[in-house]
Amino acid sequence: MKKVIVAIDSFKGSASSVGASVAACRGILEIFPGAKVIGVPIADGGEGTVDAFFTATSYIEGEKEYGKRQGEYILREVTGPDFQTVSAKYCILPDGKTAVVEMAQASGLTLTTVKKAGQATTYGTGELICDAVKRGCKKIIIGIGGSATNDCGIGALSAMGVKFIDKDGNTVKPCGDELPKVDKIETSEMTERIRECEIILACDVTNTLCGHNGASRVYGPQKGATEEDVERLDRNLYSFAKKMAEFTGKNVIDEPSSGAAGGLAGGLMAFFNVRVCSGITLLLETIKFDKIIDGADFIITGEGRIDSQSVYGKAVSGISEFARRANIPIIALAGELTDDYDYVADEIALDAAFSISHAARPLEEVIEKTEYNIYDTVKNICRIWKIAGRKR
Asked: Is the per-residue pLDDT at 312 higher than 80?
């Protein structure tokens, strides 16, 4: 065994991408102490996106010294989804011109005290974008998973200098419930640097803004919306999108991915030239993953659950695509393998998939042992690899 790559997404609620990767690396080195083991924490646009970009790009840009920091973390006090102050971080990559913003840091569902999608705002996400632009960044990568919002980006746009005014000349509160009040839009306070900024959305969903496949219908319930709320919020998004179209000339209602993050994607699309990319593909291309894996004996990847959704732009499928191109074996770990995992493994060309759960235990106990179970499962995978090597 000469070289192994570990690229594991977070096991949400139980292990970060960094923690999972470190645990797997320990398991490999216990069986193959002389191997070169490279851990690349990853994310697909949701939780952990900032850390994944910062850690991985530092490795590449830092003359292959893993952990050498050339990028920079920025910590800011911003407006949270409940209009309360929260601490949120983003990072500036080693080029000094690219910032990575994680929507969940400023406008995430985990930050809400009461889930009320219609009252939540993306204002804090806009504040992070503005801060990055003020520091000289010209490209903003936004991981838009894990939002608490359904405001079509009115919050973020307001923070970025767009004014939304009602019939009485008052500024509209930037949240989903207030969208129908918008009567007039002004952009005179938007800076030229904001206007010229390149915005890339790390996004794996294709939901449109409104309708049966829209933001409110598909994601509203998990953000606390009742059936009645869903209908109202959907109408609000439609009304707001029409008003934006009158002002910008861009109708985003049926635009693929416009419904992502409670419509934040649609709001940004209306005012900016936005590029939407698969989160995991964007990360892997940015860190030059094809060069990292060159000459590897195998790759270990994983995520909390491997199911039919894993085929559609999730971390494991993105890693597998790179492995397939390089003809490198790939093994996946998961907290749970669903009944259709075999189909998924065939679809995305996994060589093997393992559940890390060792016994039937209460969920709380399983979660507590996640990192140990990753370590132990990887250790046993390496034992099998070692046996296979002896029989060649």
From this structure: no
